Amino acid sequence: MWLALGASAVYAQSAAPTAAAPQANAPASSASPGNAAQQQSVLHWLERLHMATRNRSYTGTFVFSNGTEIASSKIWHVCDGRQQLERIEALTGAPRITMRRNDEVAIFFPVQKLVHKDRRDALRQFPDWLRPTNPRIDSFYSVRVVGSERVAGLEATVVDFVAADGLRFGYRVWSEQRTGLMLKMQTRSPQGRVLEQVAFTELQLDAPVRLELLARQFEQTNGYRIVHSVQRPSTALDQRWRMRHDVPGFQPMVFNLRQDPNAAPIAQWVFSDGLASVSLFIETFNPQRHTRESVQAEGATHSLTRRVGDHWVTAMGEVPPETLLLHIQALERLR
């Protein structure tokens, strides 16, 4: 998935609506509210956050936490407006280096001398939010500037993205005032509880990161065993699936088939409302493996499994479990 935000998005090779509670947008500490000119649209802020990583290089250290896990990583990022390269080195846990070139991802495991190569399915990755794809996103989120704070020694504007219903979480974002770069982000429950957080602890903007050096590192696989993700694009219709009705705000994005030579293929259908995303993993039901339906949670990421006819469906995303259930209930096999 991704579907978790931050470096874990790459590492993982991851009901009636209710109004969001006011507590979710408690003012930031030592902050003063923005004036009317600052209260821009959701699309405006997402575009600003997205463009902040273009034509800019930086290095820094960021920390991800979700209540049960704390992980830190070092990042080197460079973009010339056309090509974007990135190196993320895990500073905690097993040694691991994630290299990204545009939508190509290579994860190096130095101890095992192993490289996993794949395409990035995540819709966003800290500190970059991809260009918003849902023009109706303002129907499902509102935005409010709540003040300013310092993060990693830099002045940031604090912005709340408030969910319009109970089908999605809210977000609080710290955007560097000069460049717009995201310095910190929290995923928040409707009650205002922080479910996940990712933040820079130190950051050097406009650092002398060389694009050609990162490009060489991406290709340096001598002595490593390379494992390629075996997947091919498809469509829900070709695989005889459809949604009986939409889950409010969530649009179908991509449909891929992941093929393991030793197992039946697994289909992945991705939906997004422009911020949150949901993946449906669909495989043939196996009574020996698929023994119990379940709901699990880790930080903001929930997963839910259900049997749908002759298939087993795992829904996963940074959304409430009710949203996952609505996706599964809407899923229908075509004859």
Automatic annotation (TrEMBL):
This protein's GO CC annotations: outer membrane-bounded periplasmic space
Record-level Gene Ontology MF annotations: antisigma factor binding
Keyword Signal among UniProt keywords: yes
Keyword Kinase tagged: no
Localisation: Periplasm
Gene Ontology terms: biological process: regulation of polysaccharide biosynthetic process
Designated name of the protein: Negative regulator of sigma E activity
Taxonomic source organism: Serpentinimonas maccroryi
